[in-house]
Design a protein that fits this description.
Its main location: membrane. The protein has 501 residues and is mainly α. The chain contains 24 helices and no strands.
Length: 501
């Protein structure tokens, strides 16, 4: 086993994140100022880079799906689909930032409601319900889907057993992949993954803590938050021991919880007509204004809305491109490239839009129709959890709703980190076949690592924000690597076609 592990790809990025975490906790003010300066520079001065990359990759995915490349089967001619369409779709949605999607669904409209730009466009009702669909819509999903196709082609068609970011660039970089350039690519990729996953818990754990404390009449504390993290870790550590079968079953379970939560809010909340009509209008508004929203950069910086929001989301999803597309590509064996792209969009957007339309518009209804000051609460206190709790208290049997919300978020996080643990475990090997699962000891190691850093960082809010900023900054080189992978994919396909002539 020792000779198979790529210790360079395991130890170096892990040490890098640990050292930065320590620096943030020892020197919180100086590190925060430095990171904020770099983050603002990338968002303000280099925002066009992220915007062009996002829109370009989306258009590229559509081209690939409907071109001759769309007919290519991810696998051998005799290979059959490993999962049914429904199970495959559940695994795609739950392996991504599903817990983040659920969290932002509840409050993102309220964040936009405080933006002057939204008022300039035409008001909260029309645009605060539209922008969440844009920022969590086709462009960010294209980042996953295009790379999933590239990884799937590498694994199932070309049969490469070196499952790393750098290996996908081999058609372009050739032997340089085995040298320093390949090591740099892998180092950046794993560092970005660990930094991103180490902080993603910061979004939902305060809400989970508030919900559970409200239901059981406990006093909210850091210890309860740590216990919640340990419960999540226990669930996904046990599940990952069962490999892909365990992940598949957990994905199905949390999908049923998610659907139950949506039905509870849609029907039980009494705002079904408002929710559906607002959602229908928002989709129409998005389709009508999609290109304008994707290309608006506010050159005069009158509001800096695209820099503060659009660029942020594009970068945030780029960081997660290190792992999730590998997982999607792996489970797409037996499907054509066109099926993978269109199916990925269908299932990804179905889950995302359902969440934002039902959960988001219910909260919007409470403010627009009944005067619940959700957006003002967030603007005054910055406490998203308290605002979301106020929304849930308007539902019938709010404690039942909060228990359902908590169970769904925990299940989502467990499924997401199951997928990430499987990918990073495979990444830890020098070579491993696509149909071979990594050793349970390696999976357990990464499952523990993924939970230790968030627990350590819970005790310093500025460190959490700073490390999250590091993951956003890491998206800059990741964007370049994504371009290299796409170019390599086209070169590899062309080389295969040429060899078959």
């Amino acid at each position: 086993m020792k000779t198979e592990i790529d210790w360079y790809a395991v130890i170096n990025p892990l040490l890098g994140v640990v050292i930065i975490s320590i620096l943030f906790m020892v020197f919180p003010e100086n590190s925060t100022k430095t990171i904020q300066t770099v983050r603002v520079f990338l968002g303000d001065r280099c925002g066009l880079y992220y915007a062009v990359l996002g829109l370009g990759i989306f258009l590229c995915s559509i081209y690939i799906a409907f071109s001759k490349y769309g007919k290519i089967l991810l696998g051998k001619p005799e290979d059959k689909k490993q999962y049914s369409s429904v199970r495959w779709g559940m695994m795609i949605f739950t392996s991504t930032m599903a817990a983040d999607i659920l969290f932002y669904s509840l409050c993102e409209w309220a964040l936009y409601a405080n933006e002057p730009y939204i008022e300039e466009l035409g008001g909260i009702q029309k645009w605060a319900s539209t922008y969440p669909l844009f920022h969590w819509g086709p462009i960010v999903w294209s980042l996953y889907i295009v790379l999933a196709v590239a990884f799937g082609f590498m694994l199932h068609v070309r049969g490469r057993n070196r499952q790393k970011f750098s290996e996908t660039c081999r058609p372009l970089l050739r032997d340089k992949v085995d040298g320093i350039w390949g090591k740099i690519i892998d180092l950046v990729a794993v560092f970005a993954l660990i930094a991103g996953t180490a902080t993603t818990f910061s979004l939902a754990t305060p809400l989970l803590s508030s919900a559970i404390c409200y239901v059981f009449h406990w006093e909210r504390s850091t210890n309860i938050t740590v216990i919640i993290l340990l419960v999540i870790a226990a669930i996904y550590t046990m599940t990952v021991w069962f490999g892909m079968k365990g992940i598949s079953k957990l994905a199905a379970s949390c999908s049923y919880l998610f659907i139950t939560l949506l039905v509870y809010v849609l029907i039980g909340g009494g705002e079904c007509t408002y929710i559906l009509e607002t959602g229908f209008s928002a989709i129409g508004n998005l389709v009508q204004n999609f290109i304008g929203m994707a290309t608006w950069m506010d050159p005069l910086r009158t509001t800096s809305f695209p820099q503060n929001w659009t660029v942020y989301y594009w970068a945030y999803w780029m960081v997660w491109c290190v792992a999730t597309p590998f997982f999607i590509g792996k489970i797409s064996k037996g499907r054509t490239i066109k099926e993978t792209i269109l199916g990925g969009y269908a299932w990804g957007l179905l889950g995302t839009f359902s969440s934002f339309i039902i959960l988001g518009n219910y909260g919007l209804a409470q403010q627009m129709k009944y005067g619940l000051p959700v957006s003002q609460m967030i603007a005054d206190t910055g406490d998203y959890s308290a605002a979301i709790m106020c929304i849930f208290k308007t539902l019938p049997l709010p404690k039942v709703a909060l228990v359902l919300l908590s169970m769904t978020m925990i299940a989502f996080y467990a499924t997401t980190f199951d997928a990430l643990t499987m990918v990073i475990s495979v990444y830890s090997y020098k070579k491993i076949k696509s149909d071979v699962e990594p050793d349970k000891k390696v999976r357990t190691f990464w499952a523990i690592v993924f939970i230790l850093l968030p627990i350590a960082l819970l005790f310093s809010e500025e460190s959490m924000y700073s490390l999250q900023s590091v993951s956003i900054i890491a998206a800059f080189p990741i964007g370049i690597i994504i371009l290299l992978i796409i170019i390599s994919f086209f070169m590899d396909v062309h080389s295969m076609e040429k060899s078959q002539e």
